[in-house]
Design goal:
This protein is an alpha/beta fold. The chain has nine helices and ten strands. Strands 1, 2, 3, 4, 5, 6, 7, 8, 9 and 10 form a ten-stranded mixed sheet that branches. Helix 2 packs across helix 9. The longest helix has 19 residues. 37% of the residues are buried.
């Protein structure tokens, strides 16, 4: 009987360990950089002997799920996300970055040199995205759209003057749509590091994930993974 009890106890421990090693994250759907992150993050956790599932949802929903603890965290957000959402912990080392870029129609005569210039125009951005939320904070001339593709169509129809998104995200979508009349401005309005966030319930994970990101960046694995992930995402979008 003791052997049976011991065996059952051992099985229960093993099951609990397996459950503890699987984590469930969210990402923002409809953004190219998030698609890249959905490839990178599982590889980071795989190197730690853990598995991750990632559910793409709208930006505001992603924030609610991550900050409430219904999910274990978010795969990719900017630095200020952690300041605004104290129930999530930023893994200190970034693993990717983005540019906040303004897209306009050719020959529109629109001139944007800084974020202050945005106040002059009708803007459109993807809902729930922090870097474009931050750069348009306090502005009333902003329309929220659910995806970059819908946003560029909105701009193309003349319903907005300027579309705001990550440079890579915007360029890929206008290429996919075959738009030649929409272009980025000369320089990005901001360049931002991207971090993964973990709910405070799993704060013990933070130093482990941080150490792995540092290791992968130091040995070149992260650079190679980013390049591979970007190529995969681009191929999928342009099919």
């Amino acid at each position: 009987m003791k052997k049976i009890i011991s065996s059952i106890f051992g099985i229960l421990i093993a099951v609990n360990l397996c459950i503890a090693e699987e984590y469930h994250f969210v990402s923002i759907k409809g953004l190219i950089e998030q698609d890249v992150g959905r490839i990178i993050i599982p590889e980071i956790y795989k190197n730690l002997g853990m598995t991750v599932t990632i559910q793409p949802v709208p930006g505001k929903r992603a924030q609610q799920l991550a900050t409430s603890g219904k999910k274990d965290g978010e795969i990719m957000r900017i630095f200020t996300y952690g300041l605004e959402n104290p129930t999530t912990i930023r893994v200190p080392t970034s693993y990717y970055n983005l540019e906040t870029m303004a897209f306009i129609k050719k020959d529109s005569g629109i001139v944007i040199k800084s974020k202050e210039d945005l106040k002059k125009y009708k803007l459109v951005k993807v809902s729930g995205v922090k870097h474009t939320n931050n750069i348009t904070k306090g502005m009333s001339n902003v329309t929220d759209i659910q995806s970059t593709e819908s946003m560029m169509k909105f701009l193309d129809k003349g319903r907005a003057d300027v579309a705001l998104t990550n440079t890579v995200d915007g360029n890929l979508i206008i290429k996919k749509l075959g738009y030649t009349q929409i272009i980025p401005i000369d320089k990005p309005l901001a360049v931002l590091d991207l971090f993964t966030y973990i709910h405070q319930e799993h704060k013990d994970l933070v130093p482990k994930v941080d150490a792995m990101i540092k290791k992968m960046k130091a040995n070149g694995e992260m650079k190679a993974l980013v390049k591979k992930a970007e190529a995969q995402v681009i191929e999928n979008i342009l099919k």
